[in-house]
Every structure is written in C-alpha cells, then in structure tokens.
Write a structure and sequence with these properties.
homotrimer, 127 residues, alpha/beta, Macrophage Migration Inhibitory Factor, 6 strands, elongated
C-alpha cells in the first residue's frame, strides 16, 4: 500500500496539470516499482492550498508543490533511495516549464507507518 | 492526546455517514482505551478528497477511506496492537455495506510524534 | 526546509487571524532559528476543518488548532526542544484571547522525514 498526497498552492492554478501529475506518480508506483507497490493499494490525492505563507512572505508569485508519501514498513533502503530519486526526477522534469516561469519549491517526503487495511480494489483488478 | 484524520474520496458521497464514522472513532478512543486517550484530547476530523488517482486509474468507482492517527509517544506496543486492531475491525464492520456495493480501500495508519499542547477542553469537561 | 500545516476548526472562523498566525510561525522560523531553517524553504499552510468530532462530542464550542511541523532530518535535540518550546509559547500567547473566550485545544507536533527537493525560491531571495 502506498499513499501520495500532493499539496499545491492556489497561485499555481492553470500553471500545471494536477491530474497529469497525480497520474505520473501513480504510474511510477505501478510500472516502475517491480511490484513493490501492489497496484490496488496505490492512492494519490491532491489538496489545493488556499491559505499559505512562503519564505519571507513578500512574493505573491512564490508557490509550492509538496508530495508526502506514506507506506507500510519494510521496503529496503536501496529500493527507497533508487525509486524515490527516480520519482522525484520524473516529477521535477514534468514541472520544468513551471520552474522556468516562476519561483517554485518542490519537495517529496517519504514516511513509513504501521498500518491496518482492507481493500476490495485488489479483487476488482483481478476481476 | 489523540488525533484522527479521515480522508474520503468524493465518489463516496452519500455512500457512508461521515459523522457517524468520526463519532465511532472518537467513541472507541473515549470508551475503550482504559483512559489511555484522555477525553479532552480526542480530535477527529474529516477531509473530502475531490482530486485523486487510485490503483491503475481506470475505474471511476474505486474509492478510499484512509484514517491517519497521530498521538504522543509512550503507549505500549501491546496497547497499540490491541486497540487499533479493535478500532479497525469496528470501522470495517461499520462500512460493510459499502464494501458490498463497490471497490473500496480502507486503511488506518498510526504514528507517534513529539508534541506540545495547551488544552482548555479538559477544564470544560470537568465543568 | 521546514513545513508547517495549521488545521483549524470552522467554528473558530472570526475568532482568530489565520494569516497572522501563519506569519508568526514563518517569522519564528525565519528570524529565530539562527539559520537552521533556510528562508526559502519555509512553507506554512492552513486548512479549515469543516467536519470534526472533539472530545465527547457534546460541546459545539469546542475547537482546535493543530500545527504539524515536518522537516528534514538532522537538527539537534537541543535545538528542537528550545526552538519549538519558544514557538509554542509564542503561538499560545497570540491566542490567549481565544483561550479566554472558549474551550480550545492547541497542539504542535514535530516530525522529521526523508526528503527530496528542488527550490527556485532561494534564487528569487538572492535576486
């Protein structure tokens, strides 16, 4: 199971394609993790941030996109480093035109947590 | 102090009772933790998720409910395992009809964090 | 890089100044951390919580403000304790009139996480 949460400041509306970014993250997890992230457990969501203060709070154009990853315990350090470095590079490349146009902070954080789950999407996928 | 955050995908609107689910979680913390979670510190909130990609992104009916628990450090492993297994079973049972109707991913994650607090709800409870 | 997320229950609308609270947090990070938090990496956001259950769920006036801090690994325990105790005291003082008027739970949680980042706000600041 792998969760990703994309937070983006409202001043980036129209500047990037949220759905494409979420699909990129889901596709990387699905197609490039060698099955480490079972397909049925991939959940990516986006939250628009309407209220924020960035850096010294003086530049209305400052924006951020922050991606928090949460997953169960047990993936190796080697996998984490390789997979999330590649994911970060893909996300960054997909936003290169935004970086060209304005000040932007992009970040990905990765955390493991103890979890309980019940998921009938796996069955839907096999169906 | 115990925080719970319920995220639910917008395609589940009308499919379950958010307030009842939040009350179930708060009640379990209040009534079945043997005082491990002081009543005044229980805070459950819900966030509707309007933008998301689930699994392979092909099924508009796929939905998820994810519950993140955050609490101060210090509860024993035995308590954690027993309490959250029981909580998960209660939550899952309360959603059984949703599971019958559609593909759904349910998850609970539990994390401890270092905290600072000031809370006048304890005083209100003592009246 | 330092992230802060301010969650506040909707029944506190008009009771406190969200923007001032977010600026206070950003200013503490910028001006009182001896450079431990680079200015360009400071990101504070607020989320209004419309759906919630607090404590025993019986008091419509119960409210909460919860601040989650997320930052990269590596700050010393001494710094963490001193900085966040001072931050908490500042935030609490700024909300003293709200505490006088109603039951309120205030909390700050601090977590470290493994991160990847690319940030052109640093360049804007030097510009």
């Amino acid at each position: 199971m792998a969760h990703a949460t994309v937070e983006w400041t409202a001043n980036l509306a129209g500047e990037f394609d949220l759905d494409a970014l979420m699909r990129l993250i889901a596709d990387e997890m699905r197609l490039r993790s060698d099955g480490v992230f079972p397909v049925g457990g991939i959940r990516v969501r986006g939250y628009r941030v309407d209220d924020y203060v960035i850096a010294d709070g003086t530049c209305a154009d400052d924006g951020f996109i922050n991606i928090d990853i949460k997953m169960g315990v047990g993936r190796s350090n080697e996998f984490r480093k390789a997979f999330f470095t590649a994911l970060f590079d893909s996300v960054k490349a997909s936003l290169s035109d935004v970086f060209d146009r304005r000040p932007l902070a992009l970040s990905i954080y990765v955390e493991e947590a103890e979890g309980w789950k019940h998921n009938s999407i796996h069955k839907r996928l096999k169906g």
